[in-house]
Amino acid sequence: xxxxxxLLSGGLDSAVTLALSVSHGxxxxxxxxxxxxxxxxxxxxxxxxxxxxxxxxxxxxxxLSAFRSSLIGNTGKVEKDRENIGGxxxxxxxxxxxxxxxxxxxxxxxxxxxxxxxxxxxxxxYSGYPDCREEFFMSFGEMLRKGxxxxxxxxxxxxxxxxxxxSKSEIIGLGKRMNVPMHLTWSCYSGGKKxxxxxxxxxxxxxxxxDAGYRDEAEYE
Amino acid sequence: xxxxxxLLSGGLDSAVTLALSVSHGxxxxxxxxxxxxxxxxxxxxxxxxxxxxxxxxxxxxxxLSAFRSSLIGNTGKVEKDRENIGGxxxxxxxxxxxxxxxxxxxxxxxxxxxxxxxxxxxxxxYSGYPDCREEFFMSFGEMLRKGxxxxxxxxxxxxxxxxxxxSKSEIIGLGKRMNVPMHLTWSCYSGGKKxxxxxxxxxxxxxxxxDAGYRDEAEYE
Lengths: 221, 221
Known about the structure:
The structure is a homodimer.
Chain A: E1 3-7, H1 12-23, E2 27-34, H2 41-52, E3 56-63, H3 65-71, H4 78-84, H5 97-112, E4 116-118, H6 134-147, H7 149-152, E5 158-160, H8 168-177, H9 200-212
Parallel strand pairs in A: 1-2, 1-4, 2-3, 4-5
Helix pairs in contact in A: 1-8, 8-9
């Protein structure tokens, strides 16, 4: 039975990706990150989704506050930075984020004996992001072929991007057909008990549900 | 003035690599990791070396204990794992370690506006490690060219491995000629006030100094 590490943020895309890994017949392990998000709401969703699918779930702590502090020119004053973040820089912004997360997933592959990484990256909604393009993922796979024990031994870690070229409504339609518990996923930038329904991410999600012809059962304010 | 991120463990190789970055005319920023090492001695050395060269120094916290716990079959019981580690698995072992550290360095490049990463990897002492081979570093650079903003904009992040093909005695000879404060570096696996002089790492270091014709001014028990 192949074994997959699935990057699980707690959002809609990664939940559908996890469901796809399970449906592809992989023994599936979820991997999430606690990297100084302003709120833990998305991570709570990740836990609920992993529980729903009864998959093992690793949460890795990585403190990248130093990065953000350097971005806003306040190096070394991390506590203060946290208050000052706002405006142009979203609190979850991390440069080279997919690269870092996939690298850690590769490490977990090696220690768990998994042979593939699933990531719910999407080149439609994030067309401007170099780390969401197909040629990047191919290049990352090639790098792992050269730089890991598994690759050196002739069975390289595969990178699976099953929703890369789907629109939001296609992802939602697929998720609904697969009975993904969409109400457990979290897309909102805020960390309230209910989604705000007004931020860019909520708007993109609600439009996706409308276009797909489904009702979003997540709770909104 | 070019700007470089140098991976600085606090060991001899990374100290020489940092000195090379400075001598190459780069504005140099050091990057170290706190990833659950059994002792902080090496990190203290990293701080001393960064201070000696008056470089900015970022220390990133990353908790990869989940990896190790899975390695020794004790998933989820991290506290217990820490006690159980020993024998075959060195406390500092992290699968895909260079990949993870270089990925985080790439993120720091993006946020700091640096255009190159220096890493003191060595393919002579670590010939069996796929992530210490030249073809891996080339492939990693190619991946960054595809997956980062800098790469997409036509000025990709460069990977510099200046001591990759040197023997330990060559590295030591070079370091001595460059006045690297070798006495500040830490190679010993133990975390005492003085190096043990008996572990594999101490033995490799002491042989290197002998072969290079220098006295190691680090303190030994």
